[in-house]
Design goal:
- This protein starts with a helix and ends with a helix.
- The strands form two sheets. A six-stranded mixed β-sheet has the order 6-7-8-9-11-10. A five-stranded parallel β-sheet has the order 2-1-3-4-5, covered by helices on one side.
- The longest helix is centred in the N-terminal third of the chain and has 17 residues.
- It contains ten helices and eleven strands.
- By secondary structure, it is of the alpha/beta class.
Length: about 325
């Protein structure tokens, strides 16, 4: 059973390094750093580190450790919330002696010596709490760890609004709020935005297009981002902006970066993750990401999404 194998591997190793995907969201950090707290609280003598690039908007949740390459030599590496190796933040994960994958995305890229993939879970953070429960009281969680895991669940369920939310999700959330962390401060950190982001949200609502097949598109070019003084990385909080608009089956954000056009894709029904895989991406059936190298390729992506939504009968 993967859960038992994972707990055994953690017990057997003195140095454990935790990774997650690039461009982290609340679930990536919640699962990665929540697991660190769980391990460190249970086994304070172990050396536990979290690595990867940082998103300034999420450093209120956790900050990464700066460690040397040689720390990986005899380390257990655990990768959270990352479907494929190409999206693992910090390629040094390959230097570890053993790799574990914990994830709730479709297992399109099976990697690691131990894999625990549960696509029925609302989030990888939910899986980390389940791992704690599987430890049957031997494993411990701090107040800070509970905050991280709860934040990850909240983030990946859209505050419990997404279809992935189930009765287990609510049970786990009810358990976690028994810990006395400040939920209001957590929500403020996750959802409050700067004025410039709010103004860009207004631009999105005024400029999105909607086709007959139910596809909505917004283009955030370099010029638009410069106009609002917003970095591409900061657009993550805006992807849900069109989710409440009637008539939209799926919506797509094209965010222009220096050397690539980042694609953020969401759906209210049509399954989009296979389409995202076609364009160097992947994700969930209703929430995915990808990247294209030119606006011509972006047009082809849009055509494919149009065909997908036109064929959808839900």
């Amino acid at each position: 059973m993967p859960k038992q194998q994972i707990l055994d591997a953690i017990k057997e190793n003195d140095t454990i390094i935790l990774h997650r995907h690039v461009r982290p969201d609340a679930d990536a950090l919640g699962s990665q750093c929540g697991l660190k707290e769980m391990i460190s609280t249970t086994f304070p003598e172990k050396n536990v580190f979290v690595v990867g690039e940082e998103d300034p908007a999420l450093t209120f949740l956790a900050e990464m450790d700066d460690i040397a390459d040689d720390m990986f030599t005899d380390a257990l590496v655990i990768v959270c919330d990352t479907a494929n190796t190409g999206r693992i933040s910090d390629v040094r994960y390959k230097l570890g002696k053993q790799i574990i994958k914990i994830d709730h995305h479709p297992n399109v890229d099976p990697y690691g010596d131990i894999m625990w993939v549960d696509t029925t879970a609302s989030s990888t953070s939910e899986m980390i709490y389940e791992l704690l429960l599987f430890g049957q009281g031997e494993w411990k969680l701090s107040e800070y760890g509970a905050k991280l895991i709860y934040g990850g669940i909240v983030g990946d369920t859209g505050r419990f609004l997404f279809p992935s939310t189930n009765n287990k999700t609510f049970r786990y959330a009810a358990d976690l709020i028994e810990y006395p962390f400040d939920r209001q401060a957590l929500y403020d950190g996750l959802y409050n935005v700067e004025v410039k982001i709010a103004r860009l949200r207004g631009y999105i609502l005024q400029n999105f297009t909607l086709t007959k097949s139910g596809v909505s598109k917004i283009v955030l070019s370099k010029e638009v981002l410069e106009q609002f003084d917003v970095l591409p990385l900061e657009t993550g909080k805006l992807v849900g902006t069109l989710g409440e608009v009637k008539g939209i089956k799926a919506w797509i954000f094209f965010v222009e970066e220096e050397d690539v056009i980042r694609v953020r894709l969401r759906s209210k029904g049509p399954v989009i993750n296979e389409l995202a895989q076609k364009y160097n991406g992947g994700g969930h059936p209703l929430a995915s990401g990808a990247s294209v190298s030119s606006w011509e390729e972006a047009d082809r992506f849009m055509e494919d999404l149009e065909a997908l939504c036109a064929a959808y009968k839900g």
